[in-house]
Design a protein that fits this description.
The complex is a heterodimer of chains A (about 250) and B (about 270).
Chain A lengths: L1 H14 L2 H23 L6 H20 L5 H6 L1 H6 L5 H33 L9 H26 L6 H23 L4 H7 L6 H10 L6 H24 L8
Chain B lengths: L1 H27 L11 H11 L2 E7 L4 H8 L5 H9 L1 E7 L5 H8 L7 E5 L5 E6 L4 H9 L1 H8 L3 H11 L2 E7 L5 H8 L2 H10 E7 L6 H6 L10 E6 L6 E7 L7 H4 L1 H4 L5
Parallel strand pairs in B: 1-2, 5-6
Antiparallel strand pairs in B: 1-3, 3-4, 5-7, 7-8
The chains are: A mainly alpha (about 250), B alpha/beta (about 270).
Chain lengths: ~250, ~270
């Protein structure tokens, strides 16, 4: 545990490069403006809706910039080799990397979500319902989905150079949405197509979040699909990190 | 070291498989709902006999939102009661080679679930595409006034039908649509409905409806503000007013007793 804490601190410090800081500021600024404008226009009436809106906006950027090259950059720079020669296991390394990425996402996300929420609370003309319990459930699912994106990005990064992992996961996500759209419009009456479109990209937590936003019954099934995907891909990620070739002598 | 690495892979791998199986069981387990669906073929006959509109649920076994409606909407007591008492409820599996294909073509179904409200003659009153929770479904079908009065012909068509069938034209005139829910509830009573249909072809005119206002003005039909509504009986050929029956607000709830001049005594 002590090793993990030291490693977390070191990784967290390394994470905030000038580029990431600038992109984060840009994200917070943009992520704040659009929800404020949309709330002013009456598009959001509840705090939980505001939190969901920020998620859609930020996940696009974090995949490409925050999680891009999450492992491959360390392999290329020799950082992974250095760590492995200092009694850090591959499992400790990969878990810490994912926790740091999640923490960084959480910081940027909260800033982009909290700033508009504070601004809106000052404006008496905007009637926003502060539904804390729904907001908390939404936030849980949002971070569960971010965790899944991090696991997927890490998995792909074990075998891909540079920031290709972010591009591949993002393309996978977009492709799944496009196929879903096509099936809904053109092949809605083809049973296998309708069933298959739900399994192209693991979206259990996103579906659960949407169910909460629409005040549907508690999404047990969607939550189980999300957890199943998370654990399954986590297992694959552990497997992949073991296969990464790093010359560390007697590791 | 290698053994420990493999252990973590196994633990998460097994957890992933177990959770996938649990999710699949939850997703695809059969779901019972509490609605007494009548067959699509029989629905029209029953609707004609009971003078009710038909609710058609177009679904598929592999449609997620349809299953969600089974689990949540169609198990709600108020929905069950409303579909049983106010409508004739039927459902059509889109994969059914005969009925499914027929309904898909006839009503141009383009997504699922699709909810249809039909007249006993099979004319579409309205439709909704997609999931509806119990509140949304009740709101959608809840304005049963629209359903009852949608079964009634509009003024010109009712006049033609009355002339053709040798019946009198019965015009219900309202100031606005405020009392429409109470009236429809009373007029839906089987004994009133049957008695009215024997002698009359009913139609509805609401003063606030721009399409109705010209007819109301033409025949000077608007009842006094002291009355909530009024029934006018017309001879469809000459359009002479044969009878006028104003209804006070307090009488709306005991329509059975106050419309005896129109339909005679009804059994208590």
């Amino acid at each position: 545990m002590k090793t993990m804490i030291i490693l977390f601190k070191a990784e967290f410090k390394r994470y905030w490069t000038l580029g990431i800081i600038l992109v984060s500021l840009f994200l917070v600024a943009l992520g704040s403006i659009s929800p404020i404008m949309m709330t002013s226009a009456g598009m959001f009436k509840k705090l939980s809706q505001l939190s969901n809106a920020s998620e859609g906006f930020i996940s696009f950027f974090v995949l490409l910039i925050f999680y891009g090259g999450i492992v491959s950059a360390d392999i290329k720079s020799g950082w992974l080799r250095t760590l492995l020669t200092r009694a850090v296991t591959r499992q400790q390394y990969i878990v810490t990397k994912m926790l740091v990425a999640l923490t960084a996402t959480a910081i940027v996300y909260f800033l982009a979500f909290i700033i508009p929420a504070i601004f809106v609370s000052f404006d008496a003309k905007i009637m926003l319902v502060y539904d804390w319990s729904d907001t908390l459930v939404s936030l849980t699912y949002i971070f569960a989905q971010f965790s899944l994106l991090i696991v997927l990005s890490t998995l792909v990064s074990c075998g891909m150079p540079g920031a290709f992992n972010g591009v591949i996961v993002y393309a996978w996500m977009i492709l799944s949405q496009m196929i879903g759209f096509l099936v809904d419009k053109l092949y809605w009456d083809v049973p296998w197509a309708v069933v298959l479109k739900d399994y192209i990209f693991p979206s259990g937590f996103s579906d659960a979040m949407r169910a909460v936003a629409q005040s549907l019954p508690f999404p047990y099934t969607e939550t189980l699909w999300g957890l199943a995907a998370l654990t399954f891909f986590l297992s694959l990620t552990f497997f992949s990190i073991n296969k990464v070739v790093v010359d560390v002598g007697s590791e | 070291m290698k053994q420990r690495r493999d252990q973590e892979i196994k633990i998460f791998g097994i957890a992933g498989i177990v959770l996938t199986i649990a999710a699949a069981v939850m997703e695809y387990r059969p779901v019972e709902n509490a609605i007494e669906w009548v067959s699509y073929d029989n629905a029209f006959q029953i609707a004609k006999e009971e003078q009710k509109a038909i609710y058609v649920d177009v679904y598929a076994e592999w449609c997620g939102p349809c299953k969600l409606m089974d689990k949540t909407t169609f198990t709600n007591d108020t929905v069950v009661s409303s579909l049983k008492n106010d409508l004739v409820a039927t459902r059509v599996n889109i994969d059914d080679e005969r009925t499914g294909a027929d309904v898909k073509k006839k009503f141009n179904i383009q997504a699922m679930p699709t909810s249809l409200l039909l007249t006993p003659d099979g004319q579409e009153i309205k439709r909704n595409i997609g999931y509806m929770n119990s509140t949304q479904l009740l709101e959608w079908i809840g304005d049963t006034a629209k359903i009852l009065f949608a079964l009634w012909n509009d003024f010109p068509a009712a006049r033609s039908l009355a002339a053709k069938n040798g019946k009198q034209l019965l015009v219900l005139v309202l100031h606005d649509s405020l009392q429409i829910s109470i009236l429809q509830k009373e007029l839906r009573r089987t004994e009133i409905k049957n008695a009215l249909n024997q002698k009359y072809v009913p139609t509805l005119l609401i003063n606030t409806n721009p399409a109705h206002a010209p007819h109301i003005q033409q025949y000077s039909l608007l009842p006094s503000v002291d009355f909530a509504a009024a029934f006018y009986v017309f001879d469809p050929a000459s359009m002479d007013i044969k009878q006028v029956l104003p209804i006070r607000q307090m009488d709306l709830f005991r329509l059975k007793y106050v419309i005896t001049p129109l339909i005679g005594d009804l059994p208590l």
